[in-house]
Write a structure and sequence with these properties.
This protein is an alpha/beta fold. The chain contains 12 helices and 19 strands.
Length: 401
Amino acid sequence: MISRRDFLVKLAKIASVVGGTGMILFDPSWQKFLSGEYLNIAFADTYLDEIIRSAPRARYWKPILLKGDNSSKEESIVRCLLCANGCAIVNGQRGRCRTRMNVNGELKSLVYGRPIAIHIDPIEKKPFYHFLPGTAAFSLATAGCPLHCKFCQNWDISQSSPEDHQVSFTTSAHIAHVAYTNKSPVIAYTYNEPTVFMEYLTDIARDAKKLGIRSVLVSCGFMKEEPLTEMCSVLDAIKIDLKGYSNDFYRNVCGAELQPVLKSIKQVAKSRVHLEIVNLVVPTLNDSDKMLQGLIDWILGEVGPDVPIHFSRFHPDYQMRNLPPTPVATLERAYNMAMSKGIHYPYVGNVPDHPGNKTYCPNCKKVLVERQAFFTTEMNIKNGRCKFCGRKIAGVWASRI
């Protein structure tokens, strides 16, 4: 477990290399540090031209065969099979995520090798509360997202296009190497929806695994079954945002559908991958007793009481600046509803130092993990069990590094 002091020292060392900032976003000095000999981008043409030329072939797509049309027409349209949008893309155009383009009948990933945000975060910030508490996570993102959530707090990343950020190509092996040299036991794919760079993240995860580094995904859960199966084969933990237990909420606020997310949660729960769930509670939109109770009942019935669920506080941002922050009492109501129904590990999220941030033993009710903000300050779990009564506690508690 890393201490607050050690974490800040680590972050300061990284910051000194990249010009004094913890967050490295669109920063040429960070790109130079990160890429080293891989700094090989050319700006002779437009940056988008360069991206398209260097973009690798995407996975999970197929040509659309149109009856009665000629073969050239058939080859010019492709169906993306990565996320639940299932975009049909004509030649020269992109899907809703803006990151995958049909180039002469072949789907290309425009974000492979092009991270636009790098940060060192506490693992609790993702949030993961039952996966290696106190760990520093080397976190990265590219542009793009298949959803369009009106409350997105990373909208400048998720709602941007690859060509909006001029960054150099960086190999997956080099990302893993930088994480290793900075002694980060975990790489987190986060900030935007990492599914849009699944080819890159799975390659990074494989390279990182060779160095003893684990990988975690922070996701909206809007992917199809086959790519999620591949991601589960290389990831160690997945946090999925279950944004509300309502189709209308997903359609009107997120531009998406609920059922694919529920399906993804069940798929992850059946895999070997550690799962946590977050519900961002938005005032007047998904905070009713009916919606919260429906969400809790579904989790209990489909994935069980041991999956941690975080009821997180909404803060006004992006296209929803008209709503107030979630009242803490609303989060406490959701927390108490979950506890009374038998959820073992509910949490109050985005409210620093609230008692609902602590991990309690479901058996003896004593505090197992004490947290201050995003830092773990006390740990009473040994060998995966409560130190006081010996009950097994769901989660991953010991790092290999």
